[in-house]
Design brief:
3-stranded antiparallel sheet; 2 domains; alpha+beta; CofE-like fold; single chain; 12 strands; 60s Ribosomal Protein L30, Chain: A; 259 residues; 5-stranded mixed sheet; 6 helices
């Protein structure tokens, strides 16, 4: 009897709140041990962007931000704090659209997102030290993922994939979903062109954002509020890990009808 394929996702338990300079690889390995999981080659770890940003010191205190005239003008149009708008502009290549409460930009990393991915939720407890603080995306998520994958290989001898994921909205639909913003050690865009379908017809255009599919699945377990599950272990990925990056997922501007 042929066994059915399985994709098993496990949110690692007992992870503490992280601070700048913490060792994410050690935290992940400790979480794997608590879950009773021995890391194997072919496994994947999905890491919430928020803890990567915190470890890398991407927390910004708005009281330290001086808005430009451009930021002040855009803040008036969008009903946003001018200091926040200044950070959005600094983190972006260009502003694509805006309305009250929302600024859509091309982020400096190349993807389109709302408010440059800057977030104030779960930055820290609401004390004087962090009130009015926001979190920027990691400076180079692909490099962060590569560093984690290399360290995991050194520590365990296992070749694993690492995804850094965030929640993004979509042009066609309501609701945010998990997406890849950094990757190492696995294919991010699965090219199935030339593969035969059930009837032998070759696929002509099919490319699958396979790492985004994994990111969305992991995001379900991570949650969006107070769940404290920022690392998810994935086993059973039905393709060779390969090599990919965020760049593979970015649609060229000349083909993007939404820009």
């Amino acid at each position: 009897m042929t066994s059915s394929p399985q994709l098993i996702l496990t949110a690692l338990p007992g992870l503490p709140l992280v601070s700048q300079g913490d060792d994410l690889v050690k935290l992940a390995l400790d979480g794997l041990a608590r879950a009773g999981i021995v890391l194997q080659s072919g496994d994947i770890l999905a890491i919430a962007q928020k803890i990567v940003s915190k470890v890398e010191g991407q927390i910004i205190h708005l009281k330290e931000v001086v808005p430009s005239q451009e930021a002040i003008a855009l803040a008036q149009k969008t009903d946003k704090d001018p200091r926040l708008v200044q950070l959005i502009l600094q983190e972006s290549n260009r502003v694509l659209r805006s309305r009250p409460g929302l600024i859509i930009v091309e982020h400096r990393l190349g993807f389109v997102c709302a408010n440059a991915g800057i977030d104030s939720s779960n930055v820290g407890p609401q004390t004087n030290a962090v009130e009015g603080s926001v979190l920027l995306l990691p400076k180079n998520p692909d490099a962060s993922a590569n560093e984690m994958a290399s360290q995991l290989m050194q520590e365990t001898g296992s070749k694993v994939g690492v995804l850094i994921i965030d929640s993004h909205g979509r042009a066609w639909r309501e609701g945010a979903v998990g997406v890849t913003i950094g990757a190492a050690g696995l294919t991010t865009l699965l090219d199935l062109r030339g593969t035969p379908d059930l009837f032998g017809r070759q696929l002509q255009t099919t490319q699958v954002g396979i790492s985004d599919e994994l990111a969305s699945a992991a995001s379900i377990l991570m949650g969006q509020a107070a769940e404290c599950r920022p690392i998810v272990h994935i086993r059973g990925f039905p393709y060779p890990l390969g090599e990919g990056s965020l760049k593979d997922l970015l649609r060229p501007k000349e083909q993007d009808l939404f820009q």
